[in-house]
């Protein structure tokens, strides 16, 4: 008779419509904005160096571009895994509907991929030409392709190269902002969901994207340099952390501003949002996102800003803060995407979400999807040297 | 103009040409009838019309099953489609002749089937529309064994048929259809 009681295992509250029981946009849709956010933030670091001439960021500038490229390569994987018939996404791209924003991502993605790809080729030009001359066989063919089969490194050619980098990075900033702002816009555009339907959504997504991307670059830089026994550039880490502090203060303020405006305006569905944040999301929003993963970094960033620390301690704190902030942004995406779906359209009840391990969109898939960009990064590292001091001298 | 600049012009030209080819391929891949009536493939309408009909109405079923018809049409379940519980018409009849046997639910399968609609956990519809019960509380309150299946007390086509008959015999209360 156990079949009778299947329903009673669900921890539903009040009145949940049958089509609201299941959370349809699950962990893959959490990963999608997380990955595009990492791309966006990493690109900002590169843009600060190549466009705005912040010289101290030089050690991580090239690496940021490769990091962004590796993650951008994987930005569509979560979406395609989520779709029941992934091959049909091409139909949508063939006949985009002006009244639906869904096809937009395909076009924005293609443009950002092209822009980022060419930025990497122009930034690495000198190295690529040198490596082409040193390599043989298959690698030589790859480098011939990547240098457009041209060894010209004359001052005139390099001046043109510099100009192209500036133009493309300048173009890349709005493209990166649109790529990730679009994700926020898609959520903000879902009128039926009171937690998503706010014009603040793209803004919050953009700032938290910068936080996650910069944190990822800081953490990856420190970890890779430590593991390979190379020196960590102090001023570079300090500039990264200062930039991170600025973006995090903005991101956190907007996250709180959204809650405040919901609570102050007391719009039609305010009682639902309030119940959601204090009910099913009490632990993941207030405890994890706000108190632990935002409170601790704010204190640590304050310590790093105002107290004189040795560079080793500063680097250690930088790695720690970055790791916590990466978690903060992931939890924020979780609370927005999954949390937003825990409310029933009945406006009277909440459902629950149980992640599964072996599901197509389960925890194992999440881990695999998050490993793929690092594999791509590793392969990219074999073609494009991560650091400008890899050959013992400065390149840029 | 440097060698590199010329090479870049070649790359840019290739990109423009590739984009042009992309647009041509895109135009080729879009189905001919797309956009004739709206933002969809007009031929899809004809294709859907050609799709064989799989479902029938209760009239189709009850034409042959006259014994069940007599009970079903008088009971509380008279608006429920036969296919809800028994399966698809096309799996049973083709070209007006019996072509297959629909599976018959037995024992606990019947109870599971009933609870698809009559489970209190499904809160979307009010008690006035569908009577719902919690299990095993319902069996306990009726003072029957917990292994009882729904159809031991309720006729599946007319759920109150036996209940009302029992009430009539015992004189407990007035009859209800």
TrEMBL record, chain A:
Give a Gene Ontology cellular component term annotated to this protein. Answer: plasma membrane
**What keywords are assigned to this protein?**
Cell membrane, Membrane, Transmembrane, Transmembrane helix
Coiled coil residues, start to end: none
Enumerate the Gene3D superfamilies for this protein: Formate dehydrogenase/DMSO reductase domain
Q: Where are the transmembrane segments?
A: 31-51, 63-84, 104-124, 164-188, 200-224, 236-254, 286-307, 314-334, 362-381
List locations, semicolon-separated. Answer: Cell membrane
**Pfam families reported for this sequence:** NrfD
Q: Which membrane topology term applies here?
A: Multi-pass membrane protein
Q: Which PANTHER family match?
A: PROTEIN NRFD (PTHR34856:SF2)
By sequence similarity, the record places it as follows: Belongs to the NrfD family.
Q: What is this protein called?
A: Ni/Fe-hydrogenase 2 integral membrane subunit HybB
From TrEMBL, chain B:
**Source organism:** Desulfocicer vacuolatum DSM 3385
Q: Know the name of this protein?
A: Uncharacterized protein
The record's SUPFAM superfamilies line, in alphabetical order, gives: Multiheme cytochromes
Q: Which domain of life is it from?
A: Bacteria
């Amino acid at each position: 008779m156990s079949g009778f009681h299947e329903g009673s295992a669900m921890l539903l509250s009040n009145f949940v419509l049958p089509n609201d029981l299941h959370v349809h946009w699950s962990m893959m849709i959490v990963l999608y904005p997380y990955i595009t956010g990492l791309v966006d933030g990493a690109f900002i670091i590169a843009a600060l160096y190549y466009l705005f001439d912040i010289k101290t960021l030089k050690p991580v500038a090239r690496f940021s571009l490769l990091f962004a490229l590796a993650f951008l390569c994987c930005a569509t994987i979560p979406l395609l895994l989520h779709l029941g018939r992934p091959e049909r996404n091409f139909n949508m791209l063939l006949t985009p509907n002006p009244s639906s924003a869904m096809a937009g991502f395909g076009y924005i993605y293609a443009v950002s991929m092209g822009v980022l790809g060419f930025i990497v080729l122009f930034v690495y030009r000198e190295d690529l030409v040198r490596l082409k001359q040193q390599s043989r066989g298959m690698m030589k063919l790859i480098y011939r392709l990547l240098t457009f089969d041209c060894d010209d490194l004359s001052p005139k050619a390099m001046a043109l190269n510099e100009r192209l980098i500036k133009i493309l990075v300048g173009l890349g900033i709005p493209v990166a902002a649109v790529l990730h702002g679009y994700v926020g816009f898609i959520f903000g555009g879902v009128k039926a969901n009171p937690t998503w339907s706010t014009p603040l959504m793209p803004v919050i997504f953009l700032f938290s994207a910068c936080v996650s991307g910069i944190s990822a670059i800081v953490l990856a830089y420190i970890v890779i340099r430590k593991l390979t026994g190379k020196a960590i550039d102090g001023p570079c880490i300090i500039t990264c952390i200062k930039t991170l502090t600025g973006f995090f203060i903005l991101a956190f303020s907007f996250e709180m501003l959204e809650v405040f405006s919901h609570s102050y305006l007391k719009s039609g569905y305010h009682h639902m949002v309030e119940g959601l944040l204090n009910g099913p999301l009490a632990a993941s929003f207030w405890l994890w996102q706000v108190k632990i993963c935002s409170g601790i970094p704010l204190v640590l960033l304050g310590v790093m800003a105002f107290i004189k620390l040795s560079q080793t301690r500063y680097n250690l704190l930088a790695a720690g803060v970055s790791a916590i902030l990466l978690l903060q942004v992931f939890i924020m995406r979780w609370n927005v995407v999954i949390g937003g779906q825990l409310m029933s359209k009945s406006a009277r009840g909440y459902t629950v979400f149980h992640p599964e391990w072996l599901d197509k969109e389960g925890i194992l898939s999440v881990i695999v999807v998050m490993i793929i960009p690092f594999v791509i990064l590793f392969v990219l590292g074999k073609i494009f040297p991560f650091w400008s001091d890899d050959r013992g001298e400065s390149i840029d | 103009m440097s060698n590199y600049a010329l090479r870049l012009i070649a790359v840019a030209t290739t990109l423009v040409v590739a984009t042009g080819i992309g647009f041509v391929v895109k135009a080729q891949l879009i189905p001919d009838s797309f956009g004739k009536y709206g933002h969809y493939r007009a031929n899809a309408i004809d294709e859907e019309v050609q799709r064989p009909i799989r479902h029938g109405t209760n009239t189709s079923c009850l034409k042959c099953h006259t014994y069940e018809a007599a009970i079903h049409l008088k009971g509380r379940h008279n608006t429920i489609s036969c296919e809800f519980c028994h399966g698809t018409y096309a799996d049973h009849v083709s070209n007006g002749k019996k072509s297959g046997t629909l599976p018959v639910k037995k024992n606990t399968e019947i109870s599971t089937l009933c609870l698809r609609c009559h489970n209190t956990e499904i809160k979307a519809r009010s008690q006035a529309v569908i009577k719902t019960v919690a299990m095993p509380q319902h069996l306990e309150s009726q003072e029957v064994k917990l292994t009882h299946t729904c159809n031991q007390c309720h006729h599946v086509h007319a759920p109150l048929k036996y209940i009302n008959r029992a009430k009539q015999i015992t004189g407990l209360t007035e009859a209800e259809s």
